[in-house]
Amino acid sequence: MRIGIVVHGPNIIDSGYALKLIDLLGEYGEVTSRLGGTMGRTAVIDAGLEKVIDITKKLVPSDSLKIFHDDDVDLIVLLNYGKSDVTGQVFGYKVYNHYADKINDNDIPVIQIERPGEDDGSIILWNGDCNLAETLSKRLDLSVISPEEVYDNHIRQDNVLNNRNHRIVHGVSPDENIMVNGVVIGKTNSDKLILIAKDNHIVDIVGGTLKDHGLEKLGEVDIENAIIKTGLLRKAKVTPRILQKDKHEKFKVAFLDHAGEDVYRFRHCDVVITVGDDTTLVSSDILYRFDIPIIGITDGDLDKVVEDGFKAQNSIIFEVESGFDDVCGQAIKRKLFGDNQINSNFSDIRQVEGKIIEIIKNINCKYKINYIN
């Protein structure tokens, strides 16, 4: 039997269950594993599992499932460790239905192993018949639940309340950051959260408060299909694993504006300029694994989205006046990069720093600099 395993999120990896389940499933057939999502990449690197879990492509989970479908495997397994049984089951429901919409025939069984080791953990048989689901439930001491149970418990009422302009978010707790497509747009103040949109913009919220600056950064959004997360992106306290940096002839500087989860595409650069407090925090943490310093443009408006934020040696953080990080970022992009995201005309990070100081001074903006030694 050929088994395709899609691993989603850092928690299933940090808990140690990803590797345990891959080994367990290997007892029943030939297994191939790949990541679904983006934040799990750092966890795979820290665990040294790049040769076990394929992280070479940035794919949403449903696309990772589809790759295995197209490879005509005999079974597809989704591994996830949500914040709660509710978030995990709702996540699986959405992933499976996105996947089903992308394929013509649906004759390969798909099962989800959710929150293994927890009392509320489960195995969900999303389609077809799979005797292995029952076997795994006994070995892992997890109950098997059906798609109908997930729908009745969590989705049915949503379908009554949801429309094109509303999005119910499950499994939230008070005082959590709300991230939409990688941008922090507010904070929860309840265990129930509804985002309300109009003309492709989020305009109101139930169960939280919105952050105007975050909404400006987010801009237009498809509320139905947006990736929404609450709380920390990665909870575990970890020891980062540093990979050897590639050597290349030209000194490459990259520009990243409010999209921390896309930073992996710059892993072969020498320095990355990041705009925004949260983007700088997430990006520097990821780039630390590749020994790449960042030049962060921040204004002190930080929403904690990871437990620790590591920064490579020689990183430079500019803290500008409140609300000026975007203004400075736009000027840097325009003057140093134009329509590109990589500039190869500098020789070292100090030269880049000097040019940025020039640009900020021309904006007549107060700033201070912190150096990471």
Q: Tags for this entry?
A:
373 residues; alpha/beta; seven-stranded mixed sheet; 11 helices; 20 strands; globular
Computed structural class: alpha/beta
The helix count comes to: 11
Strand content: 25-35%
Strand order of the largest sheet: 3-2-1-4-5-6-7
Major sheet = 7 strands, mixed
Shape: globular
Topology:
Layout: E1 2-8, H1 10-14, H2 17-25, E2 30-36, H3 40-47, E3 53-54, H4 61-70, E4 75-80, H5 85-101, E5 110-114, E6 122-127, H6 131-140, E7 143-145, H7 147-161, E8 166-169, E9 177-180, E10 183-188, E11 193-198, E12 201-206, E13 208-210, H8 212-218, E14 228-230, E15 253-257, E16 271-275, H9 277-287, E17 294-298, E18 316-320, H10 325-337, E19 342-343, H11 349-363, E20 367-371
Parallel strand pairs: 1-2, 1-4, 2-3, 4-5, 6-7, 15-16, 16-17, 17-18
Antiparallel strand pairs: 5-6, 8-11, 9-10, 9-14, 10-13, 11-12, 15-19, 18-20
How would you describe this structure to a colleague?
The chain has helices at 10-14, 17-25, 40-47, 61-70, 85-101, 131-140, 147-161, 212-218, 277-287, 325-337, 349-363; strands spanning 2-8, 30-36, 53-54, 75-80, 110-114, 122-127, 143-145, 166-169, 177-180, 183-188, 193-198, 201-206, 208-210, 228-230, 253-257, 271-275, 294-298, 316-320, 342-343, 367-371. By secondary structure, it is an alpha/beta fold. Helices cover 32% and strands 25% of the residues. Helix 4 packs across helix 5 (85-101) and helix 5 (85-101) crosses helix 7. The model has no long low-confidence stretch (mean pLDDT 90). The chain has a 7-stranded mixed sheet, sandwiched between helices.
